[in-house]
Design goal:
By secondary structure, this protein is α+β, with helices and mostly antiparallel strands. The protein has one domain (2-101). The protein has helices spanning 2-14, 17-20, 31-41, 44-57; strands at residues 27-28, 65-66, 70-71, 88-93, 96-101. InterPro entries: Membr_insert_effic_factor_YidD. It comes from Sulfuricurvum kujiense (strain ATCC BAA-921 / DSM 16994 / JCM 11577 / YK-1). This is Membrane protein insertion efficiency factor.
Amino acid sequence: MIRIFFLKLLWLYRHSFSLVTRGSCRHYPSCSEYALWQFERNTLPRAFTSTFFRILRCNQLFPGGIDYPIINKPMIKPSELSINTIKYWFVPYKQNYFLIKNFKFKGSQC
């Protein structure tokens, strides 16, 4: 329930305020997309913490670049098992996983 609230709040931000500052993010994925991925795939405390530190790094004192979210373990839903509906790729990184978006995904967007 709380997760859905934050996902809807991120959707509202991305479709209103974020349109004004389009292209100004120093990272890929953008901070709002990073937060969206975190809240979809991580626990709430870890999503908050990761998003908070990402926003702190989004300034001129830190270099920009590619900064994929890191998750503890992939939580795969049964509806994501079909090859045509894969939304994210999970790439092993030490004992965690990088979360990388599949750009050919055609499902509903939050």
